[in-house]
Amino acid sequence: MALGGSTKLIRAYLTVNKQACLVTLTKSHLLWEKHDSKHDSQMAAKAEVLNETSDGISTSLYTYKTIPNPIPQENQCTINLKDIIAVKKGLTLPRSNKAKYIELTHFKTNTFCIHYVNKLNTHKWKNKTLTVECGDASVWQEWMDTLQTQIDSPELAHPKNLLVFVNPVGGRQKGPKIYSEKVAPLFQLAGIHTEVMETQYAGHAENAVKDLDLSKLDGIVSVGGDGMFAEITNGILRRTMADEGSEDIHYTDDIVSPNIHLGIIPAGSTDTVAFTTMGVIDPVTAALHIIVGNSISVDTCGVYGKDKQLLRFGISMVAFGFYGDTLADSDKHRWMGPKRYDWSGFKKFVSNRAYEGTISFVRSEESGHPQDNTRCYSGCSVCASDSDTSSNVSSLYDASEWEHLTGSFLGINTFTIPCKTGLSPEGVAPSCHLGDGYTDLVIVKKASRTKFLRHLLRIAHNTANQFDFDFIEAIRVKAFRYHANSKPSILHSPNSSSQSHQQQEPQQSRRSTVDPQQSVWNCDGEVIEETDITVRVHRQAIKIFATGVEDPNIKSDTCTSCYGKSW
Predict the structure, then answer these.
(1) Which residues are catalytic?
(2) What is the model's pTM?
C-alpha cells in the first residue's frame, strides 16, 4: 500500500493484535506489514535498539539494522492519521455490550491501543481498535509521544472544544439517550471538551448561538432533527453577519461564512441533512465525522420578504403549496408524532389544491440541469469549481435575465441539497449539488390526483424520473421570486361544500394574518407566513463536519479489507 512519498518518522518491529509486524509511521499514515510465524522467531533474535538507520528513520528505534525485503502487498495495511480517534496506554477491555468501544483499562507494560475509524461499505463508520505491544519501554514511550503529536497537529484539524445542543422532544424524543449512550463516550475517548445544553423551547438554540462566546469553540453540534440544525444554522449565520455590522440582512448582502463548523447527530424524524452529507442515518458515524474533523461546505438559501429583508435561511427545502399546507396542518396533530406528516400529507393530497401566482427566476448558466442524472459525491468537481455565484449577482438586477411563469400551481419547491431520506435514498432532487451556488426549482403545475400521485410515488421509490411529466418543470436557478394572485383552484373535489372546508382548514392554527386563500412556505419545517418572497442562493455559506456521500464506484485510500479483519 503506497504511502504517497510521505516522510518516514519512525519504524519498528512491533506486535499488532498479537501478530508480529513491521510498523512505519509517516506524517500522513500508519503502515503495518504482517510477518509469517517462521519469520517471527528470527525477529526476536535479531532485534535491537539502534541510534539511527541509514534511510533517515528517527533515533531510538526497535528495529533491524537492515530493513528486510518488501513484504507481499496482501500483508500490508494502512490508517490515515486523520482517521485516528485516540491513542491510549494499556489494553482496552469492553465495559459492557452497550459501550464496547469505551477505553478502560487493564494496563500491560509497553502496550498501547490505537482507536481509529473503520469505514464500512454501507457508509457506516465504526470505532475499531489496534492493540500494539512493544518489546522495549523506550520504544513504547517514543511511539506514544510521536503518535499523539501527529494526531494533535493543526493540519489534521481534529476539534477539541464543542458546544452541543440536545433536543429532548424532537423526532421520537430519543435525543438525550442517543447522545449520552452513543456519542458522549466517543467524544470523551477522543479527548474533546464539550459544553452540553438541552434546549427548553423552540428557537432556544438559535437564540443561544447569537449571545454565547464562540471564540474558543471548534464547532457547534446539533443532536436532533433537521429543524434543530436549521435553528443553529440561522443563529450562527445571523451572528456572523451581526459581528460584521449587518444586523438587518438585505437581499443584496453577500453572506459571510462563519469560521466555525457545524455538526449534526441525527435524532429526528427524517434527518435529511445527515443522510445527504454522510449517506446514512447513524449517530456513531456522525460522531466520528465530527471527531476526525471532516469538512464540507454547503449552500444555503436566503428567504426574503416584500421589503427584501431576510426572513430565514433555508438549508434543504423551501416549499409552497402541497408541502406548505402539509406542514401547517400537521401542527394540529403533534400528538401523533412523526406519523402526523403522513396523515396531513394524505389530507392535502385528497384536497388537491392549486394556487394562482407568478414565479420568476434566473437560470443557472453553467451548473447542469436537475435532470442531467449526475450525482454530487465526496470531492465533487462541480462544487470545487472556482465559479463564485454568490458574489456575481449582477444578473439578479438585470430584468432581461429573469423569466416569468404565471399559472395554477400545486407546489413550488426548491431544493438546495438532494434531500435524501430513508424513504427516498436518491433524494427528492437527485442531481442537486451541495455547494455549486444554485438551487433546483421544481414547479408542479395544476394536475389531476392520479398524475400527482405518480410523481410522489416516483420520489419515494426512485423507479423513474420524477420530473418527467408534462405538468412539472425542473430548473436550476440562482434566485427566484413568487407573487401570489388572489384565489386558489381546487380540482376534482366531489362537491363545493367540501371544497370550502378544505380551503379554510390549514389557516385556523398557523395563519391569522395571511390571506386565507393562499398557502404558506415550508422552510426546513418552519412556517413562513409571508406569501410573496424572493429566494437567493448563498454559495457554501456553512461548513459541516462531513465529507459528502462517497462515490460507490471509487475506492477510498482507506484499507477497508484489512480494517475488517479480526487478526
Answers:
(1) 226
(2) 0.84
